[in-house]
Amino acid sequence: MSDHSSTSGRALDNPHSRTVFFSFCYDEDKRRADVICELWQAHHPRGVSRFVDRRISEQAKALGEEEVKRAIGEGVDQTTVTCVLVGAHSWQDRWVRYEIARSVERGNGLFAVRINGIADPQTHQRTVAGWNPLAYLGVGKIAGGDYLMFENINGQWIRYQDHALSLAKPAYLPAMSPGYVQPLSVGLFEYDYVTQNGAENLGRWIEQAAAKAGK
Hints:
Elements: E1 10-13, E2 19-23, H1 26-43, H2 54-63, H3 65-76, E3 81-86, H4 94-106, E4 109-114, E5 137-141, E6 147-153, E7 156-159, E8 181-183, H5 184-187, E9 190-192, H6 198-212
Helix pairs in contact: 1-6, 2-3, 3-4
């Protein structure tokens, strides 16, 4: 797990006033995420209106993990769709997982976009393709009918301790029986920003994710 120097997401509005939370591994992928936001601004000059403020998350980190969770929650709560930017180690990142879990709790649309093919503007390096973080978090139905978040650790599904509260089953997941865990990746889209022309298609992907979540 990488150490975050801030919360790793940012919120922005699309031309249809759809507010989106971008989740990514901050230490490794911040500059690649910046490339996406800059290209978005070039295509939609009035699109970017708000960000999850870095100063807030820096302060939250200094105050401890509960404050980091609070800052992430406040950021996600502004949004209706969450885009998970997938780099080499996003799937291992604690706070990426928490941002996803809070997005599920809120009922956000969710989708993943691979960004390993974007050259880092500073180092000019691309990175290896990592696993999709949405495959490592799931929703499970327990005895009694409640739904909880689970995470995959070493091939085993265990209850997700950073978000232990029950939640509503997301609209994009099928019905399930007690004792079954459905990985989020099964019901959600995954794209590649470079090979699938994310600069042109990101807005469409956002709307597709919103539709799957009933937003």
